[in-house]
Amino acid sequence: MLNYKQLHHFWTAARAGGIVRGAERSGLAPQTVSGQIAALETELGVNLFKRQGRKLALTETGRMVLDYAEEIFRLGSELEEALRSRSAGRAMPFRVGVADVVPKAIAWLLLAPSMDLAEPMRIVCREGKFDALLGELAIHKLDVVLADSPLPPSMDVRGYSHALGTSTIGLYATPTLADALQGSFPACLDGAPLLLPGAEASVRTPLLRWLETERLRPRIVGEFDDSALMRAFAEAGAGLFPSASLVGEQLCRQAGMVHLGDARGVTETYYAISVERRLTHPAVRAISEGAARHQLGGSTAD
Length: 302
Prior knowledge:
42% helix; D-Maltodextrin-Binding Protein, domain 2; two-stranded antiparallel ribbon; Arc Repressor Mutant, subunit A
């Protein structure tokens, strides 16, 4: 079994830049630290350091072990902080990754129940590309990832996709742009300026297929990986844009947008991806149960 005391001595020395400096930080004799690292190398059957001139440098294996050690002791620090927070009555961190294709209003709708728990939570949100967020989930830097698609089978990440709900997709425009459109929906979309989600958005292909089925050829004036940026362009009148009908009322009330109509048969499903098959984290459970209460769905996939 791995000796974590020995690993900690290696980690300290590697971060300090050598055994002597590592010993100074630990308050031990260099011979003691050197002996602990030598014992670790013997146990693992590898060399962690190599002589480089008059100094020691990490071997390739040593760099790999250091990466793991960084993660191990980072998680240990988080555990200590979580226990201190709980005993002191402070809010526990809830680390959420939000894929940049998920509309911010949807993210808020899904996350809101986690803020009403008896045990207070401090939400730490990270927005980014889906693949990058899954990587952080795999090494436990995130508790959950919110996305518009389930965990891809090709991803070498152990995780489970929990479907939270599905929304129809509507088309929205500013009042000025809506007044300028000719005819009724959906014929009015033909030739109209359209803003599209980027290639990574799950709704893009079904939407384009629907336009083709309806024999509509809007003028695509922009494509956006970030849903908030697409909405900003739409609110400025650059073009009409698709959005989940779940937040359509909010778009019309707060942003003054006009609902033109829904793309028949085009839907978007939202997922909470976690490393747990059965949800045990209280905040993640609250998200799933909140989605079910609001009739957003709530089945579990994969």
